[in-house]
Amino acid sequence: MEQIQGRFRIIRSKLVIFTLLITNSLALPSIVFGMELQGFSDVTYTYDWNKQPPKASDPYTNGTVELGELDFFARANLSDRVDFLTEFNFSADPNTNEGSVDVERLQIGYLVSDALKVQAGRFHNVLSYWNMTYHHGRQLYTTVDRPDFVKFEDDGGLVPTHMVGLSIGGHLDTRMGGFEYDIMGGNGPRVQNVDCTTTCGGGSLSPNSTGDDSKNKAASFMFRYMPGGALRGLGMGISGNLQQLRFYGPDGVTPVPIVSPDGSVTSVVNQQIYGVNLVYLAHNIEFLSEGYQFRDYNYQGQSYLDYVWYAQIGLKIKNRFIPYARFERTTVLADDPYFIALGTQDMSKTIVGLRFNLIPSSSIKAEVQSINTPTNKYNEAAIQWAFAF
Amino acid sequence: MGLCILKDEATELKPVFANSLIKTRRVVSNLPSKWVGMAFFLALSILIMVGSGAAAAELREIAVISGKSFPADVLTLEEVKEIYRGEKQLIGGQRLKPIDQRDTQSIRTQFLNKVLNFTGDEYVTYWNNRLFREGGIPPIPKNNSADVISAVQDTDGAIGYVWLSDTADSKPNLKILITIPVR
């Protein structure tokens, strides 16, 4: 009984905070206590067919309506050089329908010069262009969702999307164009909820926000070059992430050894991820592409190479309509303990869709996806109404 | 362009003028030739005056301004672009505070289109994305040029844009960092 009452109190307190935030954001000017509060959210309907298991056992037979994350973004300039930024969101676990509040970003920064800003806190990992550009704002995505491998840790993502630690970055303008750099160091993630009851899988990344389970800190970097003149709109970058990951069971504390088909056993992986990105955003063309190579080393030092990439193109028509297409591919080795723990299979996905900008801060998107894995070949349709406020 | 059109017209008119005089003498021989000539010069003068007025109305200058305490005396066009895109945030160690105008002001459309190469909607989207990514200070909108002039005088590090003609009364208290001709 006490447990139920306690749980009720927690839910009630979350509801009170949620109501206050909504009230603040809707009824008051966007500046609250010297801080500007903005946000994103969306409502998405998805329907799939030909998915295994067959429809009879599929809970989404008639499709499903998903309330997207309610994402709040606040920033404040504490002085000319010191600023603060936070992003927190309310979301529901699709499996349990239980809500949760997550601090996604919390950054305090000091602007030394245009070429150097020092920050501390919890960041979005600079490894991925998509992750650093669009964050949690689905209104900012041309498509309904992120590429699968860039999804957030708790949503099945394969690359780390958060880091807690220190960051330096800046922007340099030269006659040849603009250069951007970001370097981060901090807690690396862990892989939790790994279930090896039958075959291993089901794990998900956790960014270790409150403490690091590894004595090796993670580091990541991104260097980007954006030429000017006739090539304005073009951007190209290289990035990387080095980290050590340990595997844990559902209790979050018990290490789980992963047995690979090649016979090796390990509960820790040293991982290097290297990537390139190429972007063109000009003349009404939106082209985004990123590719990554994973180098996973198990406890015995055996290495595994895996690849993920996507390419997306859209064409703005009168700044209102954007027909778009994306292809993404995941190629992983069956012996790689990291992907065994996450339950990742080879996958290719083709998306075709249309985005309609209702107003600059709200859009409606409709898309069809074709998804291929070794065990499943199915289609999915989605309609999303996304907005920023 | 206005001048070019006039020049072209003038060069085309010369032979026509000569021919017309000849034709006039032949066809309308009873009209005094001096009246024909005067009428033509009158029409040409009106054309030049109207053309000059139109040219003056088309070509205006945007002045990027600051208060006297601003740490720079001159900005390049590229620096203005970087400041209004949020890429340049400091100058002489001082935080820059760009000031925008409301979208009801025609100068804003000119400034965004001709200087920054944005439409109004694109600029809003650009800043929404940028703020979400990095935080920072977006350009603060003011109602009109008078408010912009007042704001740059009162705020350290502030720069704004107004029509050059609007700065006439305030020049002693302003720095004109660059003027940008626009049509």
Overall description:
The complex is a heterodimer of chains A (389) and B (183). With 389 residues, chain A is mainly beta. Chain A has two domains: 1-32; 33-388, Porin (Beta Barrel). Chain A has helices at 2-27, 129-134, 337-342, and strands spanning 31-32, 35-49, 64-67, 70-77, 82-92, 99-113, 116-124, 162-174, 177-187, 190-192, 204-206, 218-227, 234-246, 258-259, 265-266, 268-282, 285-297, 303-315, 321-331, 347-359, 362-373, 376-388. In chain A, the strands form three sheets. In chain A, strands 2-4-5-6-7-8-9-12-13-16-17-18-19-20-21-22 form a 16-stranded antiparallel β-barrel. Chain A has a two-stranded antiparallel ribbon with strand order 10-11. Chain A has a two-stranded antiparallel sheet with strand order 14-15. With 183 residues, chain B is of the alpha/beta class. Chain B folds into two domains: 2-58; 60-182, 3-Layer(aba) Sandwich (D-Maltodextrin-Binding Protein, domain 2), CATH 3.40.190.10. Chain B has six helices and seven strands; from the N terminus they run ααβαβββααβαββ. At the A-B interface, β4, β5, β6 and α2 of A face β3 and α5 of B.
Please give a quick description of this structure.
Chain A is mostly beta strands and 389 residues long. Chain A is built from 3 helices and 22 strands. In chain A, a hairpin with a 5-residue loop joins strand 17 and strand 18 (303-315).
State the major sheet of chain A.
16 strands, antiparallel, barrel
**Termini separation of chain A (Å)?**
40 Å
**Number of DSSP helical runs of chain A:** 3
Quick one: CATH superfamily of the largest domain in chain B?
Answer: Periplasmic binding protein-like II
The CATH C-level class name of the largest domain in chain A:
Mainly Beta
